[in-house]
Amino acid sequence: SFNFQLDDAHKDVLLRNENLAVCKTPSQNETGDMKFQMDFDSRKKGELNFTYLEDPVISYVFSGGSQQDERPRTIASGGIRIHVMGEHLQSVYKPSICFNGTTFCEECQAENETSMRCLSPAMEEEFYPAVLTYGFQLDGVKTYSDMGSFLLLQDPIYYNFEGVKLHLRGYLTLDGHNLDLGVSLEEIEVWIGKEKCKVTSLSRTQLICLLPDRQPRGGFNGNPPLLTGGWTSTRVPILTSTQEYPSDLLLPPAVLEPREED
Fold it and tell me: Where would you find the membrane-spanning parts of this chain (predicted)?
C-alpha cells in the first residue's frame, strides 16, 4: 500500500503512477511547517517540511471600466480583464473565476500577493444586459465562491467606413455603438498594418486614435493590414477598396481582432 502522511495523519492519494504521486492536503487551523512523509507498506520514506500559508483574502473586484464600488462587468465574447485585489493571493495553486455556479470558468493568474488577474470567458444569454452570479475557486477556500452579481453586456459594434477612407496624418475616428460598455480604453490596442494607432479617446459612440507618422505596411503573410481590439476574435472589415487612389494616400484595409495578453 501507499499513503501520504502529514503530521502522522494519512491523506487521500488523488493520482499515482510509476513516476508521480499526487495527494490533497486537508485544512488546518493554523499556519506553519509540518512533517511530510510517504508511507510504502508501513515503511516511511522522505521526511520533508510542508508549509501551510495564510488563506487568500479578496477585498474587491473590478473590470470593464467599472469602479471599486460598482458591479463588475464584461461582454458576451469575453476576454475582458478582471482585476482582483486582496491579500495572500499567491498562496493559491490554481485559482479560477466561475459564473453561474461552474457553468463558465476561467483560470486566473496571481500577479503578486495583493493582485490577481483573470480573463472573462465567452458567455451568451438570450437578453442583454444580463446579471450573472460569480465567485472564485481558490483550492479549498469556500469563502469567495459566491461574490454576488456580475453584469454581462453585448459586444461593442464598430461601423464600416463608407467607400475608401482617406487619411494623410493626425487622428483616425472609428464610429460605433456601445463601444465603452464593458470595455475600458486601456484594454484596446489599435494596429494598422504593422504599426500602432495610439488610442487617445473612447466614448459610447467613438474611438479615436493617433495615426502613425508614415503609411503602415501590410500584415503578415500577405494579408491586408489589421486594426485590432481586445475583446473579439471576429475579423470585421473597416476599410474598403483602395484601387482608385494612390496607395501612399490611403490607410490600408483594417480589421478587428483580439489583443494579446501581456
Answer: none
| CA atoms of 67 and 73, how far apart (whole Å) | 10
pTM value is 0.75
Coil, strand or helix: which one is 4? Answer: strand
**Domain termination residue (choose one: 129, 153, 177):** 153
The domain in which residue 7 lies consists of: 2-52
Query: What is the residue-averaged pLDDT of the chain?
Result: 77
Q: Does pLDDT of 244 surpass 50?
A: no
Q: Residue 131: what pLDDT? A: 95
Distance (Å, whole) CA 186 – CA 178: 16
Q: What is the pLDDT averaged over residues 171-182?
A: 87
Do 62 and 149 lie in one domain? The reply is: yes
CA angle 209, 188, 120 (to 5 degrees): 165
CATH number of the domain that residue 70 is part of: 2.60.40.10
CA-to-CA dists, residue 180 to 47, 258, 260, angstroms: 56, 16, 19
CA distance 120 to 72: 11
Q: Does pLDDT of 246 surpass 50? A: no
Place of cell 484594454: 187
* 255 within a domain of the structure (yes/no): no
Query: How many CB atoms within 10 Å of residue 256?
Result: 22
Which of 85, 119, 153 is a domain's end point?
153
> pLDDT (tens digit, 9 = 90+) per residue, 143-159?
999 999 999 999 888 88
Closest CA to 76 of 22, 5, 172, 157: 157
Count of domains for the chain: 3
Q: What is the mean pLDDT of residues 27-37?
A: 78
The CATH number covering residue 223 comes to: 2.60.40
